[in-house]
């Protein structure tokens, strides 16, 4: 497989960076081709704005998604966006590797999504979920957080991690067509021993070793809904 | 009340901007004091990084939350962060006003949270949820999106909006102690008539007119959990 890792941690010595490096090593050992976008190192711009469009479909009023479609058609996407889009298109597997900030991605990674998941390529019209632009490709999250695993789940203080990840796994990755693989989650990272960290890296190797057999998370398909996206009674 | 509106839309003529302007007008009419941070107009930097700390607790290894705590104690928070923190501290009600991007906030607003919701002021140790730093204050989302309301809910194509908003309403606003008021959601905005838009603005005025009586969303309290944050059996 061609694999793209998007990495977004401000500290090069972080455990999150060690996860990224472990993935590169383990996946290369399996014969995969790896590409990495290290967003902090690239000084990537995360702010979707009018500056992304040198040429506008409508110069008087910015609708960001419509301008994305226009820029795709005219092949005038901003250079930094075009570069990232091409990496994503080449990749059979996309891994987002990040520290969880506020039950979500750091803004730098969120902005990579905002700017790179372009309307007209990733989705558009009825091309979403199992008809999205990235259908046939896989995506996976690997992330670190401070909380312990018992703080997540039904009845736990923060609620279920599956619910917390809905905007990313369902609303973003599955929405553009990806088969979303189970995430790799490193809990309580700032507080654990060196031995515990090494065990997590071993667990991550195991998770990655098995990656071609991991079953994707099940999300709704468009076939369960009618033309106006009301649920079909028999679906 | 002192009310702070954080606004994050790249188009000054947008309907999202009209929501913000409607809130200012309606809330001033009620006698409240309004302050606005227009993040695009301010060219706010959303990227949490080492550059936020002129003086470091640990110069060799960046743990962002630990450096936030250090910078609080030493009173050396970056100027743009300190300014926003003071606005938040002054406000009895915080309104986040934004277009929904990828079932979440635009990166620019996410980065305002990442950088401004400082460890040591907003939360820290056992100061979170109903013991968070913003206890006694209220917060509310107002946002626009392209989807229609029937696309959200149990069994709907995108699932329930309450679930989609968990990372923001529960994991962020309630986590730091806010009473989270019901959101105001403007559906299908890019596709509706001028009359429908005007109706939404009237609905928003009504929502705001009643704001001091809106009941907060119920989230778990720390008293339902033991010292290690395991659920208490009788809670």
Automatic annotation (TrEMBL), chains A, B:
Superkingdom of this protein's organism: Bacteria
Matches recorded under Pfam families: Flavodoxin_2 (PF02525)
Entries under SUPFAM superfamilies matching the protein: Flavoproteins
Record InterPro entries: Flavodoxin_fold (IPR003680), Flavoprotein-like_sf (IPR029039), NAD(P)H_dehydrogenase_qn (IPR051545)
Keywords associated with the record: Oxidoreductase
Gene Ontology MF: a single term: NAD(P)H dehydrogenase (quinone) activity
Similarity remark: Belongs to the NAD(P)H dehydrogenase (quinone) family.
Protein name in the entry: NAD(P)H-dependent oxidoreductase
Organism, scientific name: Acinetobacter piscicola
């Amino acid at each position: 497989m061609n694999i793209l890792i998007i990495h977004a941690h401000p500290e090069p010595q972080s455990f999150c960076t060690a996860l990224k490096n472990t993935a590169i090593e383990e996946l290369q050992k399996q014969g995969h081709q790896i590409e990495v976008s290290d967003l902090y190192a690239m000084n990537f711009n995360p702010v979707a704005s009018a500056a992304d469009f040198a040429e506008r479909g409508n110069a008087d009023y910015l609708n960001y998604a419509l301008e994305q479609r226009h820029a795709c058609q005219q092949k005038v996407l901003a250079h930094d966006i075009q570069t990232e889009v091409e990496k994503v298109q080449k990749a059979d597997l996309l891994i987002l590797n990040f520290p969880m900030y506020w039950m979500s991605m750091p803004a730098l990674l969120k902005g990579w999504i905002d700017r790179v998941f372009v309307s007209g390529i990733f989705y558009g019209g009825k091309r979403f979920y199992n008809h999205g632009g990235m259908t046939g490709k896989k995506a996976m999250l690997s992330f670190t957080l401070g909380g312990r695993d018992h703080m997540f789940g039904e009845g736990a203080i923060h609620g279920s991690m599956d619910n917390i990840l809905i905007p990313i796994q369902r609303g973003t990755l599955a929405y553009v067509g990806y088969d979303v693989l189970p995430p790799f989650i490193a809990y309580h990272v700032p507080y654990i021993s060196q031995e515990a960290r090494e065990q997590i890296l071993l667990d991550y190797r195991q998770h990655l070793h098995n990656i071609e057999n991991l079953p994707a998370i099940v999300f709704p398909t468009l076939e369960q809904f009618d033309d106006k996206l009301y649920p079909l009674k028999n679906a």
